[in-house]
Amino acid sequence: MFKRLFLSVSALAAALCIAPAAAADPAWPEARPLTLIVPFSPGGNVDTTARLVAQKLADRLKQSVIVDNVAGAGGVLGVAKAVHAKPDGYTLVMGFDGPVSVARLINSAVKYDAETDLAPIALVTTAPVVLLARPGLPVKDMGELIALAREKPDTLTYASSGVGTVLHLAMEVMQDQAKVKLVHVPYRGGAQITNDVMGGQVDLGLLVTTSATPLVQQKKLRALGVTSAGRVDTLPDVQAFGETPALKGFELNTWTGVFAPAGTDPAVVRRLNQELNAVLKMDEVRKRLAEGGAIAGQGTPQDFAGFLKKEKALYAHIVKSADIQQE
Hints:
It is a single chain. The protein has 327 residues and is α/β, with parallel strands linked by helices. The chain is built from 12 helices and 10 strands. It has 2 domains: 163 residues, Bordetella uptake gene, domain 1 (D-Maltodextrin-Binding Protein, domain 2, 3-Layer(aba) Sandwich), CATH 3.40.190.150; 120 residues, D-Maltodextrin-Binding Protein, domain 2. The N terminus is likely disordered. InterPro entries: BUG (IPR005064), Bug_dom1 (IPR042100). Keywords: Signal.
């Protein structure tokens, strides 16, 4: 009996000795800043969303969240930097459809695989694309545009933010569904698209609602349609593509989301997901996103992973059907 008692006491003592060591492991987050990589230059849609989220996340975590703009290659450089960062929960990236889900489908030089090299944390926004017409183009909606495109095949030009972007993919789907052919003119960013559509250098231009909404509201440009399933609250007079019979069922939206490098502690991923969901439920945040035509996301990391899987399958189908390759 004394031997059993001694062993029990010894085991308890050993457990008590181990416990303080485990408790001494530093809790996340430590008193050091987090970095949120933005794969674009300052001032764009993704950057604006990231800075709004970073500010509120910092308040909740009681830690600084520094926005690091890493522009280049359509967002690929910024995402690649995140992929190669230490998976300790202190480096995140505000990813979006292009460099996360499309880039590797059209460019063999992209070496990372976002599905295995990144840990999805939370869907931040979804937002439709708006098709804008140059001044003087004799069409007022998608039906009239399709009629003109059929009358004059391969003559109307449209500007997107680059080959393989969701803006480009949306127009490829539109052309395939409506059986028309337009000329794609890839640009590097929204500001140049806006200037050239306003100046008449191109007939049409595509912008995400967050950029297009003020231009339409201020009557600087005319919108022909939005790519969401229904109309958006900020542009109630602009038809959804799907309202045109030739484009029935059309829906293709852009999205942004926060990721960590693969291998990040699942407990950290869950905590970040909870904090980001709380940020995205804030009235101020939802209002600011809605003003630009974006919808705040919600859900678990698993929900976001499922969303990404479906989106990637859709993009792969479009890329293959349209035979899109990086120029």
